[in-house]
Specification:
It comes from Ogataea parapolymorpha (strain ATCC 26012 / BCRC 20466 / JCM 22074 / NRRL Y-7560 / DL-1) (Yeast). Belongs to the mitochondrion-specific ribosomal protein mL49 family. The chain has a domain of 78 residues: Translation Initiation Factor Eif1, CATH 3.30.780. The mean pLDDT is 80. The protein is an alpha+beta fold. Strands 2-3-6-5 form a four-stranded antiparallel sheet. Strands 1-4 form a two-stranded antiparallel ribbon. The chain is elongated and about 80 Å long.
């Protein structure tokens, strides 16, 4: 009934190598790369699996582009809250404590679940000014 049609692909093209010829890197490029990346012999397991930025933190802005520093009232007391902290919250707390040396350390509270820093008192304006310059 039906004729079976068999086709065979025939090509007159020769296979082409897709790899580009490699040029050796210039000595200045090699010296710049060795300053940034260590030699493979110098890398060990601790470098690969540890946290490389233990004392680093970042505060992401809100969707409108503002710094997330808020003045709130908790049981008739003024509290300044800093939210959206990524990284080391305790390092951020230590840096903010250096900004306000007149405040005792007991006024600073780290909330690890919500990654929020609470400061007793209204320090929102100077803190926003500092964070706008930094982040």
């Amino acid at each position: 009934m039906w004729k079976q049609i068999i086709t065979r692909a025939q090509s007159t093209l020769t296979p082409v190598s897709l790899s580009l010829p490699q040029k050796p890197l210039a000595p200045t490029t090699l010296s710049r790369l060795t300053k940034v990346f260590p030699q493979i012999e110098q890398v060990n397991a601790d470098n690969l699996y540890g946290k490389p930025f233990k004392n680093a933190y970042y505060i992401s802005r809100t969707h409108k582009g503002n710094i997330p520093v808020y003045r709130t009232y908790k049981s008739q007391a003024v509290v300044t809250e800093v939210r959206r902290i990524d990284g080391s919250l305790t390092k951020f707390r230590d840096d903010v404590q250096k900004l306000f040396p007149e405040k005792p350390k007991s006024d600073f509270t780290c909330l690890m679940q919500s990654m929020t820093l609470r400061i007793k008192g209204d320090v929102s304006k100077p803190l926003k000014k500092y964070l706008n310059e930094t982040f």
